Amino acid sequence: MDKNERIMNCWQILHSDFSANEVLTNMFSHISHTTIDTFVNELCQYKSSNKHNIEIADLIEQFHTKAGSLSEDICSRIHELRGGANIILMAHQPNIFPTIAIIEPIFYLVESCKLAQERTGRRYVPVFMFVDYDVADDKRFYKCAIPIISKPYTKHIRLSIPHSTRNDVMFNIERPPLKVVESWIEEIRVAAKQFTKNSCYSSSLNDHFQEVRTLILKCHSNAKNFSEFNEFILDAIVNHFWNMSVLFYEGHTQYLLIGKEFVDLINSQVNVNRLFNEALDILNKEKISVSMRPRQLTANRIWHYQTECKRRCYGLCDSCDNLSVPKTQPGYKLPDVICDNILDHLYIGKAGAVGYYKQAEHVVVSNYVQSTMFADSVCPQLLIDSNGIAINRLRSDAETFFSAEYIEAFQDRQNSTIFFCACVGFEKLKETIKTMLFGSNHS
Q: What integer pLDDT is reported at residue 442 of this predicted model?
């Protein structure tokens, strides 16, 4: 690459022509970003290991049992998984009132399973792992956006998390009081009423809103913590209302199992760090911008969550000893994002993965570490760049009725899916997203 060329990030590189560069081709070649067909074609060629299907199936069954969503279709998918079906995986934090940016990749997750199965005759199941062991300081965990008519045209629904618990893990954050949840529901109602005023949706607004209200209150009642509240809502949208039969489970429960693969990776952290730095060096030399920084070779990148102090940490703290030493008291070992991606291959043995564009940097680096360290082929991966919901897909008169500022706010991909469901109903939103992603002739 010419030294005078402008610096691009990993996502931009995927859209550029680097075919003449063997190093970049090897690092980026397994990532699809344009059409689902390219991704599915690679899925059909890839042979996954399905290493721990039974254990993963047990965790999935546990989640859907406590969520109250262990339907016949979910049970059938779990049975397929136990029988050796291939896993196509998506993983993300359990965000409050999930955004369109998270919903869209789920449609690709389900569609890719369907297409790969049709083309190969092999079984594929869509699996979503909640990264509920991330820290609660991640703003998407506790804050989401809905568009409003007046300035600033966006309102944020949020849970106030005390600074003293911001570094706590997500699955340890308390469930919000019912009074707070009721106030969120009212904010959604007001925003939905503004959008549907003088439209074909105004007469059905109350029915759609009541469905949303019932869903939120049921999930609040079933949840024991805030993470579960968020998880149950996404599960209900995707499986109860949209019947997509996606299998969910909580990531921290997987790391209670701490199998041989995780132990081996913990013991190989020097090598992981060396290859991590090597990947960054290659990207930097190619003038590709990365936000990650080099690591000390001896740096520990495995968190430990101690059930007594309710924190996750690296290395030493007031109540934890060296994290590479097995614990005698209850606790979890939790991987950072690079080790997490590698463990998806080593422990789960996934056939493919679906995510969104901001994960490109982590995916590229972890793919390099994995393929170099274990001499294994990297599974195909599909990264999505969501554009949000165009307002004229829902209202043909929108451009004359609403201000340009509201239209821009409405089309933000970080808007809550729950808001759209309250406006037009679950089924209409599902049809709109499917048409937007796959075309009007999609079945």
A: 66
